[in-house]
Amino acid sequence: VLANGNVCVKSRCAAEHKALTRSLERLGIEMKYSSNGYHKITFHSFRAYFFTHAVRMHGENYAHRMTGHSGYLMEYDRMTEDEKLEWYLKLEPELSVFDISKEKIENERLKKEQTSQYKEMKEEIKSLQFQLIKQDKKILENLYQNKKLVFGT
Description:
- The chain is mainly alpha-helical.
- It folds into 3 domains: 1-30; 42-95, no CATH class; 99-153.
- 72% of the residues lie in helices and 0% in strands.
- The protein is built from 5 helices and no strands.
- Helix 2 (43-58) packs antiparallel against helix 3, helix 2 packs across helix 4 and helix 4 (81-95) packs across helix 5.
- It starts with 8 loop residues before the first helix and ends with a helix.
């Protein structure tokens, strides 16, 4: 952070790069190209990995939009925040590197979906029960009124 409160982008990027490198070293997966010594896993490679899988699942416009690119006539292809989230959640299992993670993410997504459906069904049942009670009450009132008319009580 500079004296005037602005963040120095260059030093922030360097710090993030170091943090990623340290994490990869600790995990034992720091890989470098033999030809130039550059790291194989970088923030750019994560972005490229995301972009590739996003294109394969949802097409180029979605991939460009989600990586911050401005594509040709993107303003004509509008997505709501809910649509972006829905599409991302479909894509998320494909972004995991390990199959176990993919299964776990998919299971968690299905669990949330089932929980949500369960809650909706529970609310619907309550609503239907309330409607039945109201109908029963009306039927009883009508029977009582008819009894009064027939027997004069």
